[in-house]
Task: structure prediction
Amino acid sequence: MAGNSFGSIFRISTFGESHGEGIGVVIDGCPAGLEIDKDFVQHELNRRKPGQSTITSPRNEEDEPEWLSGIFEGKTTGAPIALFIRNKNQQSSDYAHLKDLYRPSHADYTWEKKFSLRDYRGGGRASARETAARVMAGAIAKLFIRHEGISIHAYVSQVHHIILPHPYTELDLSKTDSNAVRCPDADTADKMIATIEQARSEGDSVGGVICCIIKGCPPGLGEPVFDRINARLAKAMLSIQTCKGFEIGSGFSSASMKGSEHNDAFVKTENKVTTRTNNSGGIQGGLTNGEDIFFRCAFKPVSTIQKKQDTLSKSEESILLEAIGRHDPCVLPRAVPIVEAMAALVIADFILLNRSAKV
Result:
């Protein structure tokens, strides 16, 4: 099946299903000699895994990776790196009643039409369980870009109607993981958590927005024309299950601006070229300009809810579906490390591509 790989030089291929033997990733193109901090990789997985709090899925997976290849004496060898996580806490029986049904807003109907069969146990390959593989790869990409002085910070800025009122420049991003919802403002976080718990008590779900900032990128990362860095970031984020929208810099609000309002004028301060504003989100002409890269991702409410919903069976019979199982009432807290992982994979790839851009 095509579409399971991402990247040009720093390239990953993920495999596995939600209720199969496990989830894995093969990373090709990672330079030799990179020191691997396995505790850091586990930390990133812990941020994504279910069962973290009362506002996430209660599925209890340890998500401890098996390191199969590509690492010797704590460093990358230049060979493909393979990691695998065994599924240990499946409850496939929860999905038996869905064998002949199409769940609303899931991949059931579309995947069956494309492949003539589907793994109905948790969505199989379409499940967000697949993102554990991305987080493993993204953690290694983070270790790589750290050597270039680049860091990535994502956080939840909106849950349903609760919106964080402060721009990222006024936030202490080190506080992002200090609460269950991963919002760096404590007062807003409390309101977000209450909103998620209310939705869960009603058998419903809510969506929201994740912001991401990439700091320390040098000017000139990106490739013309179809691989502009903003285009690759958009592809990376929109490939995440439940992500429905992407905007960079001023995004859709730029449609209501004049050029005189939107243009980021270059200035030089203390021997450094910078801009007065950052409406372009750190990217101009598809290449980084040295400023912070800032983008936002919109995530829809989780499709599996406890409320009764109308749907169809394979025989096109109308059915009233009442879902069972263990599901997130809001995917946002667990999506934060996924957004960071995909951003790190994009940046790592462009760093390696840039090394061949000129003599």
